Fold this protein.
Amino acid sequence: MVAPHPADGHPDLTGAEGPTVMFKPIRLVPPNTKFDFVGRRKPAFTISGMVVLASVLLVGALGLNFGIDFRGGILLEARSTEGPANLADMRSTLAGLGLGEVSLQEFGEPEDVLIRVQRQEGAEAEQIAAINAVQGALGPGFDYRRTEFVGPTVGAELIKAGTLAVLMAIGGILIYIWFRFEWQFGICAVAALLHDVVSTVGLFALIQYEFNLATVAALLTIAGYSINDTVVVFDRVRENLRRYKKATMPEVLNRSLNETLSRTTLTSLTTLLALLALYFFGGQVIRDFSFALMWGVLIGTYSSIFIAVPLLLYLKLRPAPAGTEPEDQGAAAKAAE
Amino acid sequence: MIYFAKWKVVLVLVVCAVGLVYAAPNLLDRRVVAEWQETLPGWLPTKQVNFGLDLQGGSHLLLRVDFESVITERLESLIDGLRTELRSADIGYTGLGVDGDSAVFTSRDPADAARVEAIIDSIAEDVEATVDPVSGAVAVRYTEAAVQQLRDNAVIQSIEIIRIRIDELGTTEPTIQRQGLERILVQVPGVDDPERVKRLIGETARLTFHLLDERTPVTEALAGRVPPGSELMESWERTEEDAPVNYFVVRKSVRVSGENLVDAQATISENRPVVSFRFDSAGGRRFGNTTRDNVGNRLAIVLDGRVISAPRIETPILGGSGIIRGGFTVQTANDLALLLRAGALPADITVLEERSVGPSLGADSVAAGKVASLIGLLLVAGFMVAAYGLFGAMAVCALLFNLALILAVLSGIGATLTLPGIAGIVLTVGMAVDANVLIFERIREEIRHGRSPISAIDAGYSRALTTIIDSNLTTLIAATLLFAMGSGPIKGFAITLGIGILSSMFTAIMVTRLMVVTWLRRTRPTAIPI
C-alpha cells in the first residue's frame, strides 16, 4: 500500500513554512528528541519497585478506607435547611444514639454533611432502624439528599464482583496483547498495568480516600488507559524492530519511545484537561473518582515509558546481537515469571 | 487512503446526520419535547437520554423475599395435619416439630414405618419423607420442585403486590423486576420522600384481629410470664426513638384476617384520621360472630405483629365493615389504607441495599455534569487547535460529532445516563482525540521524512490505524468487563465509555479523514500546516 520507508536520517522538514500556513502550531515536544529512557531503567525500576512494595505495606499497615459498598453500612447526605450545619452539635447528638462509629464530614458546601454510620450488628432490619434513628435524632432541620445503605450480603458480593472484574480485565488484556503481539509484550504490559493498579491502591491506603465501587471502576479505567498508552509504544517497537534490523535493542526501544513521545504527552494532557474539568466542576460526588483517574493518567504514562518498554530488554525479543545482552539476569528471571 | 469511495462519503455523512437528528432532542427542555411529540410528524426522533436515579432523584432498593418463612409456615400447618392424623391412627410419636427445612418426629414403634408413610402420602403430595426403620426417626421435607414452586410464587406475588403499592403512589415508570432466585429490584424515579417508599414496600401489611388477653397484666408478661395461647405484642405507634408506646397481651388465635378485606379507605372521624374497612361476606360473618360473642371484651387490631389499637366491643358489628382508630396522621392513615387495599405480602421482605437520591442532589449533579463537560470540551478543543492548527480544528469538529453520536446512541437504545456516565463522556472527550493525535503525529513524522503532503497524510492514516485499533480495543475490554460486572451507576460509566470508544474510532478515523481529504482536494497544498 505504501512505498518502502526512506532510510533514516532525513533533514528536519517540518513543513510548517508552507504557503498555506495560517499560524504555527505549538510544539510541546520538539521533534527528534533523543532521550535515553532505557538507560535510566535502573533508577526507574528501583523507584517503582519501592513504590509497589510501599503500596503493599501501606495496604497491610493502614488498610483501605472501605466505603459502605464493600463494608456494608449507611451513608446519608444531609443538607441543613437552617444555614450552615453545626458539625460539632450533630456529632454529639449522633454519638448519643449508640450506633457505633459515626463519621461526619462537610461535603462541598457548608450546609451539606456526609454522615457515615458503621454497619450495625444484626441483619438488615437493624440497619434500617439505624437510618430512622439518625434522621429522628437530627430532627426536621435537614433535607436528605442521598441515602445509601448496603447490607452485609450485598457488600460481600460486591467485593467479589469487583475483584473478579479487575482480574478478568487484566487477564483479557494479557490475552489480547499476546494475540496481537508476542508473548513478551503481553508480560511487560501486564507488569506495567499491575504496577499502576497496585500503586493506585497504595495511594488510596496512604491518603485514606474512600475505596468504593467507583474506585474499582476507576481502577479498571486506569488499567484500560495504561494499556492504551503502552500499546501505542509497543506498536512502534514492533515496527522499528522490523525496520532497524541491525540496531541494538536499547537503540530500538529508545527510538520508539522518542518517536511516540509527542503523542504520549499530548494525549495525556488532553485527558488530564478533561479530568481537571471534571474534578473542579463535576460536583462533589465524583471528585474522588476524577482524582483517581488523574493519578491513573500520570502513572499510566510513566509506566509505559519507564517500565513496560524497558522490561522488553530482558525478554529476548530477538536473537540478541552482541552487546545487547542485559546485564541484570536476576531482574530478567523475575520479569519472566 | 486519500481516495474516498462515493458510498463511503455518503455513509459517513448519513451516520453524522442521523446522529445529529437523534441527539437533537437532548438539547431541548424535557417539557418542550413532550409538547412537540404531539405536533411533530411521527418519524422525527423525540427520545431523550434516560436519566439514572442519581440524576433525576429516586429510590433504588434491592429486596430479598424471605421465602424460608413461607416454608416454615407450611411446615407448621403440615405438622398440625400430622398430629391429627397420627392421633386418629393411634401411632405414638415424640419430638414433633420443625427442624430447618423439615418437619421431624420419632415414632415410638419403628414397625409403624409403613403406616406413617401412608399417612404422610395421604396429607401432602409434594413432600418427600425419610423414615429410619431402626430408630423410627421421620423427616418430612418439601421436594426440590415444591420449594422452587413456593419460592417462585412468593416472589411473583410479592412483585405484584409491590407493584400495586407503588402504582398507588402515582410515580412514573417504576421498575420492579425479579433478580436471581429470591431478589426483587425496585427502582422508583422522582420520589420526594424515599423513606415513604421504603416503608410502603417493607411493610408486610398482614392485618389480623385478635381478642385481648385481659386476665394477664402487661407487667406479668413483660417479666416473661406469658400464658400459653397468648403473646406479648408492642404497640404499632412508636415514640420518636422508635420504641413502642405501649404493650399488649394478645390471644394468639386469629379471629379474622386481612385476606377477607375488600376495601379500605382513609377518612376523618371525630376530627381525626381513621381507616375504614369492609370485609367480604365470609369475613363479615366471622367478624360479626366474634363481636357478637365477645361484647365487653377488647378486640386487638394487629398489623404485622404490632397492635394498632384495642377498642372495647360495645355492640356486635354485623354489617361487615368498621373503622380502625389509632394514633394516625393523615399520611399514615392513607398509607395504611393503601397497604390494606393492596393486600399483604406473602412473605417478609428484607432490604438488602438502598440507594436513594433526593431530587435536589440529582439536579445539582446534572448541572455540574453539564458545566464539567462543557469546560472539558473547551479546554481540549483549545489545546487541539493550538497544537495542530487547522487539523486540530477538524479533530474538534469530529469530537463534536462524536459527542452527538454518543448522545444519539444513548437516546436511541434507551440506555440510562448516570453521574459516572457523565464522567465517562468527559473522559471520552479527553481520550477521543487520541486517535487524531496518533494520526497527526504520524503525518508530522512522515513529513519530516521528506514525503509530499498527500503521501504523508496517506501514510499517516494507514500506519496509525492498527495502533488506534489495538489501543482502543484494550480499553474496550475493560469497559465490557465493567458493564458485565458492575451495578447501577458503574454500568452507566461502562456504557458511555464503551460507546464513546466505538464512536470516537469512527469519528476520528472516518470523519476527520473526509474533512482532510476534502480540504486537500480543494486547496492542493504544497505543505501541510501541522
